[in-house]
Amino acid sequence: MANLVRTIRQRDLLYLFIGSVIGSGIFLTPGLILRQVHDSVGLSILVWIVGGVLSLLGALTYAELAAANPEAGGLYCYIRDGFGALLAFLYGWCLFLVIASGTIAALARAFTQYLNEIVRLTPLESRVASIAMIAVVTVVNIWGTRESSNLQNVTTFIKAGLVFVLSAALLSVGHHGSDLASAVGTDLRGFSLLSSFGLAMISVLWAYEGWQFGTYSAGEVVEPERAFPRAFLLGSLLLVALYLIAVIAYLIALGPQAAAGSDAIAATAAKAVLGKWAGKLVAATILISVFSSTRFLRNG
């Protein structure tokens, strides 16, 4: 089998790592997580930190596997080498027919839902927009790995930058910082504490999920033995820092009680502090985020 051209650099891999993780989770789940730990700000922050540490350990494990076996295919290759060709074959077809395809369809639907927040669409226009988005991503990926990677870099930089700018604005304008100290503690004890913490971890790990997809491009990475450990380590640390800043910004903008009551906390915080127009900014950010995530799944 012919070798793929190694054109993805360490910087590209870092953008790929971050871009495949940041989806809609950080915009939606912080309020749910706060409710799951009974409105305890301290436990909520701890859940985000522990989830980040677990994701870091998982990412470093995959980085080691990708560095040791820099072959295109990611998890397929690891299952094949560890458990045999049959299980790898079954996983590959499940990925093609259900896992990746279903995720792409769901992301395309989410894309049109957030696009509808900016421009009103009819049901037919929404379906056309979903198909068009998938078509654009497909064309870019067919165009070439370098071009696809460049698009990934741009969209990741934009969406990560918008999350940071929004967080900075909420931190500077929010007026509920003094309310956080009184909500740090918790009345949960024993099994109730463990069960609430574990339930919240499910949502947090979903928000951190996606770093494993970077290994599917191992066959196209320049110096994978060096690039994967460095990119996955730095990417994990940057994501934990960005997520913690965003969660604290939401809390300062809304206060613990209002934040816990929101299922779309980024939009709620932006509207409360910056005005109604900011809701469209959040919708645009999620649009870019969803598009970026779809681009990689289509490539993988």
Question: Can you tag this structure with a few keywords?
Answer:
0% strand, mainly alpha, 300 residues, single chain, 12 helices
Describe the structure.
By secondary structure, the chain is mainly α. It is 78% helix and 0% strand. The chain has helices spanning 10-21, 25-36, 41-68, 75-83, 85-118, 123-143, 145-173, 190-208, 224-254, 256-260, 265-274, 277-299. The longest helix has 34 residues, at 85-118. The mean pLDDT is 85.
The biggest beta sheet reads: none
- Mean pLDDT, rounded to whole units? 85
Distance between the termini: 19 Å
Uncertain residue ranges: none
- Which percent range describes the beta-strand content? under 5%
Globally, the shape reads globular
- Rg from C-alpha positions? 20 Å
Order of helices and strands: HHHHHHHHHHHH
Count the strands? 0
* Helical coverage, percent range: over 70%
Total helix count? 12
Derived from helix and strand composition plus strand pairing, the structural class reads mainly alpha
